[in-house]
Design a protein that fits this description.
Blueprint (H helix, E strand, L loop, with lengths): L1 H12 L14 H14 L2 E3 L2 E3 L3 E6 L1 H7 L3 H19 L8 E6 L8 E6 L10 E3 L5 E3 L5 E4 L6 E2 L10 E6 L2 E6 L6 E3 L2 E3 L1 E3 L5 E4 L2 E6 L2
Helix pairs in contact: 1-2, 1-4, 2-4
């Protein structure tokens, strides 16, 4: 389950220097649980299926916010990843990119938490994103994104098994698709060799020895 993976990652995140800060008061895992509950509570039926909020504002007391200050950016990213994983598991869809923001609220007391969750449509709907093995996220656009070894590639890889211009991710009326560019070793999607494949959320593209995950958010 996405939330369980989030909790395990969070345990590693707050080890060491941050450990003492979380012996009392608002706990990071509770934020994740509350966000997931808001997603489930505000889901609605859309043209493509069940649509859920994609923008979340986490309001907390100034005291709690100060305790999170040392790794706020990392926590916001972990929370956004937990949102994407939960949506994938439940078959939810987003209208735009996922964003989680932590804010101070002077009216709240230590331990209090307020989650604002809204559905905000992106200019072209939910953008496609590829996630590289090192965790980097590259947002796709209407312009084709070439995968390859050359520095001019939008998705540049240092894998020696990858051709200079190996494959391309294109957008059309059906969404994003990955197309082989006559590469030496070809491409696979979810373990199956292919030359042209319409991508779905969670698909794994194997290029050379490098696995790239496609996400619709």
């Amino acid at each position: 389950m996405g939330l369980q993976r989030f909790e395990r990652r969070l345990e590693r995140l707050v080890e060491g220097a941050f450990g003492k800060a979380f012996r009392s008061g608002l706990q990071p895992v509770e934020i994740g649980r509350r966000i997931i509950r808001e997603m489930d509570a505000q889901r609605s039926l859309g043209v493509r299926g069940t649509v859920v909020p994609n923008e979340f504002v986490v309001a907390m007391s100034s005291e709690d916010s100060e305790r999170f200050a040392g790794f706020r950016d990392a926590l916001q990213q972990e929370l956004a990843d937990a949102v994407r994983e939960h949506a994938r598991e439940e078959g939810y869809h987003f209208a735009g990119p996922v964003e989680v923001t932590i804010e101070d609220d002077a009216s709240l007391r230590r331990g209090d938490l307020h989650i604002g969750a809204t559905i905000v449509a992106g200019a072209h709907g939910a953008p496609g994103t590829v996630v590289l093995p090192d965790g980097r996220r590259i947002e796709l656009s209407d312009e084709p994104a070439v995968i390859g070894r050359m520095p001019d590639c939008a998705i540049a890889l240092s894998d020696p098994q990858v051709s200079r211009h190996h494959a391309e991710i294109r957008r059309d009326e059906r969404g994003y698709r990955v197309v082989d560019l006559d590469s030496t070793n070809g491409i696979q999607v979810n373990g199956t060799q292919t030359r042209d494949h319409v991508l779905s959320d969670g698909d794994v593209i194997l290029v050379g020895a490098t696995s790239i995950r496609y996400e619709e958010s």
